[in-house]
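Fold it.
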Amino acid sequence: MKIRIPFAALAALFSLAAVAAEPSPDTVLIQRGDIVVTAGDYYAYMEKIPEKERVYQRGDIERIQNSLSSIYIFRSLAAEARAQGIDKDPAFQKRVQLSTETLLAQAYLAGFEKTMQVPDFTDVAKEKYKASPERYKAQETIKLKQLIVLPMGRSDDETRKRIEEARARLAAGTPFDGNLVREYSSDQRNRVSDGVIDGPYALLKPEVAAVARTIPLNKLSDPIKISDGYALILVEERLPARTVPFEKVKDALIDGEERKFRRAEVDKKLGSITNSKDVVINTDQIAALVIETDRAKLQEMHEEKLREENKEKQRLLKQADKPGN
């Protein structure tokens, strides 16, 4: 659950003045009576965010404010919960124990992985590359600019006239860019990509792909009739199918082997715990945890969820197809 303090209230709680150096962990950021939020609390909060995303979080004052407001509010509510004795409830203490153990286990495994002695897999990567060179073939690709005009209630003649108008402007020197694409195109994907296609020919409609394979580079095509309208293209580059050199895939291959090694070591560690001869499993009592279920009701709930998901997908698709989106 994410809770936010309104900006005005948040601004009253702490100053937004820039500081020259990062605050020390014990620096107080928010305080109300005995409720204190420090920079150390914020740093700990950031630990649950993937490392590669932390710069994104730390680079925006509003995100920092939202994080601090969550810490402050939950700490305030936790204080009220303790005052009511909620923390003394045995069932709640079990939940706290489970949460603590989960965090400790995650921290242990993170440290376990960091201290692993990972072998050099360069030779393994080379052998893997040599054994299956066909796996490292890059397919034929093309880079072009494309404008698609759909009928959208227009006749075929009107649709063709519209794309011919766009072509005349391009031939006269108007840049083939996102502005022109958004002005003339009624195809949502075409608009979102600013008309740029960079990838395999399969990304193109068959009629367009046939022209794209043969038209001279940097020459504006004539209007191309497609199943649901017309298209214009300007091919900038073609790359034939080719074998990717080992050096281009070396890092990915080594990384894959290292990840396999790390997973195997972690599995070995977990196996030493789960397969211990000292483990006693009370199968009868575990079986007693099973409760009677209405399978027909569960299936009905599952189908209803799928229907809701499909309905939402259809709504988003219709919204995306509306002109101007």
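Residues 246-274 form the longest helix (29 residues).
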